[in-house]
Amino acid sequence: MNRKWLDKSQPQALQYGVMLLYVTAAFDLLNGVLGGFDLLLLILTVLCVAGAMGIANDRKWGYYTGVTAAVLPLAYLVFYTVQYGFSVLAAVGIFNLFFEVALAVALLAPSSREYQKIWFQ
After folding, report:
1. Hey, what long-range contacts does 43-51 have (CB within 8 A, 24 or more apart)?
2. Domain range annotation of the chain
3. pLDDT tens for each residue of 20-41
């Protein structure tokens, strides 16, 4: 069976989502190497890679895994921002927030959702 890293026939938003999942996994690995791995970071890295590979190979489980990998850090950030105030956003950085939102938007875009409903197995 041929495995793909990226499927060029998918909608652009879904392709961007796959690429952002790979980039997120790479940053998570770099963060783990430089700052020390913890279980949550390792799980998130595995979710990102599995989701990206699943989406690229037209699998429903890959789409749901990718969406989970995109929404979990965003929910975590929102939770801590509400609990500790906006100083958390300053510590995390606006770039990280932008990146997390772009990933979630790309995977949850209407074209991405419709494509996976019709074509994914």
Report:
1. 44/69, 44/72, 44/73, 47/72, 48/21, 48/22, 48/24, 49/21, 49/22, 49/25, 51/21
2. 12-112
3. 999 999 998 998 888 887 898 8
